[in-house]
Specification:
The structure is a homodimer. Chain A is an alpha/beta fold. The first copy, chain A, has helices spanning about 15-30, 45-55, 65-75, 75-90, 120-130, 155-165, 200-205, 205-210, 215-225, 280-290, 315-325, 355-365, 390-400, and strands at about 1-5, 35-40, 95-100, 105, 115-120, 135, 140, 150, 170-175, 195-200, 230-235, 240-245, 255-260, 265-275, 295-300, 305-315, 335, 340-345, 375, 380-385.
Chain lengths: ~400, ~400
């Protein structure tokens, strides 16, 4: 098998931990696999360097030059990749470390948040054939002109998934310090169970939960490139969670997990003129300033007026209010509420099962929790409730769908 | 003018110090010059990384892989060069930072101690024409195949001198935390004076003194490429010392400086068979194991026997004794003395002045210092004396040649 493994910052934070990573890599190699390893910088190193570069900023130079930032940001992975190669060599294995550029990762020009455009795999393939363990610096690539770029948040995961896709690897293992994806956040419901297999689509819907182990950007790329993605704990022998195509999951439960998102705020536009195209104009204006609208509910109009409720990230409330000022002649009142939470039930099985929704509304009723907004998709039911009920709601739903069994 | 400036690790050790460097660079730029800046890693960073990589070594893997070492070693300069570019940009100047490879520095394959083979200056020239201040990571280059290499000890100075030569720069300023080259070590003779101008040849002979500001490797390259080299203090406005061709120095003093070397040991082979070719064989054997023999004195033979005295670095005494065992059938006794010092008087003016030597012997006699060995070259007189007299000898010679005036 050809395996791509990715180790995050906490997994390579000290010499002992790098030794531990080396041992895991060797285990995979000894099982007869070809192994490509993607590493992050030591945790904390990148932040330290960013802060350093920001010391030179002031009101008329608010941000350091992105090109130079990428030169600095990519230095952390440069150290860890070489250290891991040395650790593997010291244990008697053939190992070689490559920069993103050497690994053939070609990106666009968007410094500090570049997108991978292409991966030239020839060099890695040749080295694998020569029995090398190939270590690649995560988070970085280079433009066609050879300028170093970095891939933004979660960039090392992305490097690993993209390499796995380009190399047609049998699996891509993402190592962090948690065991995998859980049916819900174990800090909220201690009875939460690790999920063995989950589809890309469910994983994307569980984003708010999954973000702790994997960003949507990587899951989306895995889905697109059909990469079998596994999130595992680098400090334990547990199996982890396989994120794969729906077809690869034999026994599909109706509900796979309960997600909780406390980062949304609700905006209510009250008594908006109920004319065609007004909502479209409002949402267009918000999208122009890159505000992500999540759930939308519009009441049925009466007397030529309607109420429009929607949710956006809490951090964007101020900006949204400014945008909405332009429409103030069209509505009566603008309200916002930051004390909300979004609880979602996610499961591919919903598609073919009825009664899933009614079960969850019943559970909320039993707990005396008022549902402010409801949104549904093929594999998800989301509810906006009061913030203070969040934990109770998650636990009730977890029990209702017997996820603890 | 086109100026190459090089700043060492202590000059870029903190944000404030990088600001200070940026201001110096701007001053040079504002005077209408084109400026190329070579920077080292922050002091301590490189050592820290080397230690880290050595943690993986053990008896059967004594040294980390040199290729991977170079990847790690070159990361320090990657950070400082980008930080300086950001600092300059934040002050409103056009600046761009380049890796050794981007700067066109091509080296051989000897990882961790590579030699510069060629410099392709086109990229730097284009950037200078576009009014950029160009910052180059010191200490590093790349092979023709694009593998990162480092240049070994004093490598950043070497980068600067080689770039100055290739760019035909008007001068190459090496910034450290001392004011320049002194007539002798000021810790030994507080009356020591900073030298304004000195020839390459004298600088090379003053190595033991000069090593604190500049390694011979850089001076040799400056001489070869005809680079006007200036060592200056990055924390003061003092002029520094210009190291240049002899012809460029108008008023050449007879003696430029007094050097002291306490790292030599004397080996004495007593009653060696006085046969032709024996000395040659001995020194050949020593050179085969890379022992640098410095001064050699052979007494006139009598009764078919002779005494052979020479000096070598103290650290190589044990190894030398082992080599000399092979010749033990040819001599009576082997002695060594680590309590010696070499005092040297250096000056291009000696070539055309007589009486320089007799003055120095007289000074030693007046101080009651016994001279064990004497060696001379066109521009140097060296004496081996007892270690304990070293300071007294240096001060006496400094006064004799009126270097304090």
């Amino acid at each position: 098998m050809l395996i791509v493994q990715k180790y995050g910052g906490t997994s390579v934070g000290t010499c002992e931990r790098i030794e531990n990573v080396a041992q895991r890599v060797i285990n995979a190699k000894e099982q007869g696999n070809q192994v490509v390893v993607v590493v992050s910088a030591m945790s904390g190193e990148t932040d330290k360097l960013v802060q350093f570069s920001q010391n030179f900023c002031h009101s008329s130079y608010p941000l350091p030059n992105p090109r130079e930032c990428d030169v600095i940001l990519s230095s952390g992975e440069q150290v860890t990749r070489a250290l891991l190669a040395i650790a593997l060599e010291s244990k008697g294995y053939k190992a070689i470390s490559l920069s993103g550029q050497e690994a053939g990762i070609v990106t666009d020009f968007m410094h500090t948040k570049a997108r991978i455009e292409k991966i030239h795999t020839q060099k890695i393939c040749t080295l694998l054939e020569q029995n090398y363990i190939v270590i690649v610096a995560g988070f970085q690539g280079a433009t066609l002109q050879g300028e170093i770029t970095t891939l933004g948040r979660g960039g090392s995961d992305l490097s690993a998934v993209a390499l796995a896709g380009a190399l047609r690897a049998d699996k891509c293992e993402i190592y962090t310090d948690v065991d995998g994806v859980y049916t819900t956040d174990p800090r909220i419901e201690p009875k939460a169970k690790k999920i063995d297999r989950i589809s890309y689509e469910e994983m994307l819907e569980l984003a708010s939960m999954g973000a702790k182990v994997l960003l949507n950007r990587s899951v989306e790329m895995a889905k697109k490139l059909n990469v079998n993605l596994i999130t595992r704990n680098s400090f334990s022998e547990n199996e982890g969670t396989l994120i794969t195509r729906e077809e690869n999951i034999m026994e599909q439960p109706i509900v796979s997990g309960i997600a909780l998102d406390k980062n949304q705020a609700r905006i209510s536009i009250i008594d908006l003129n109920d004319e065609p195209g007004i909502a479209a104009k409002i949402f267009e204006s918000l999208s122009k300033v890159s505000i992500n609208v999540d759930m939308i509910v519009q009441t049925i109009g009466r007397d030529g007026k309607t109420d429009l409720d929607f949710t956006i990230p809490k951090t964007e409330v101020t900006q949204a209010q400014q945008v909405l000022q332009d429409f103030s002649h069209l509505f009566e009142k603008l309200e916002y509420d930051c004390n909300i939470a979004k609880v979602s039930i996610v499961g591919v099985g919903m598609k073919s099962h009825s009664g899933v929704a009614s079960l969850c509304f019943k559970a909320m009723a039993q707990e005396n929790i008022n549902i402010m907004m409801i949104g549904t998709s093929e594999i998800k039911i989301s509810m906006i409730i009061e913030d203070r009920h969040a934990q109770k709601a998650v636990r009730a739903l977890h029990a209702t769908y017997q996820l603890d069994q």
